[in-house]
Amino acid sequence: MTEPSLPTGEGKAATVRSLFDRIGPRYDLVNRVMTFGLDVGWRRRAIRELHLPPGSRVFDLACGTGDLCRELQRAGHRPVGFDFAFGMLANARTDAPLVQADALRLPVRDASADGMTCGFALRNVVSLDALFTELARVLRPGGAIALLDASRPEQPLLRAGHAVYFEHVVPVIGGFLSDRDAYAYLPKSMAYLPPTEEMLAMLRRAGFPAARRLQLSGGITQLFTGVRA
Hints:
Blueprint: H1 9-23, H2 27-34, H3 38-48, E1 57-61, H4 67-74, E2 78-83, H5 86-89, E3 98-100, E4 113-119, H6 128-138, E5 139-150, H7 156-177, H8 180-188, H9 196-206, E6 212-216, E7 221-227
Parallel strand pairs: 1-2, 1-4, 2-3, 4-5
Antiparallel strand pairs: 5-7, 6-7
């Protein structure tokens, strides 16, 4: 359930855009530091789980500064990045085509992508149902999705340690290297994500009948995958 202090609807969209506009210049640095470099492996795993041949057209939603676009190119794919925060796109380090656009209303034709990725932005969209419906519209039948986001470990000791780090240490790191308010929002925004079974049910209703969830690095990150029916 969403915390009362967190914005919803258009207020959420405006808040997210403002936060990510501000943190663009040092976004990659903070990611590497606060994840101890693990985020690179998570993105590469997401791309492998697409199971697409080289040369596939893959749309990366909430592409930020282009981390996933760079990895998609490294894997031989043809990425296009979409993000609605211009501050992120302005600091992108990729030569893939980039488009400023809302992930819920992509300016592309139906069935125009072979694959779609999204890195750590599920909790930032206004509506997950609308996002999953848009994924299904844009993907060709047989196309694949790989959606990364933060998670909380199920093992009690790991969960307790992760909570201390995520809720107290991450805002300090973010404040020192970039913007404390933005990185204080990060752990709070986990409240936007519904339980796993609800997320999977939403994906299956949208057109991904075999959607599944993988836990990475002991459960601190989760990866949702599926194939368009």
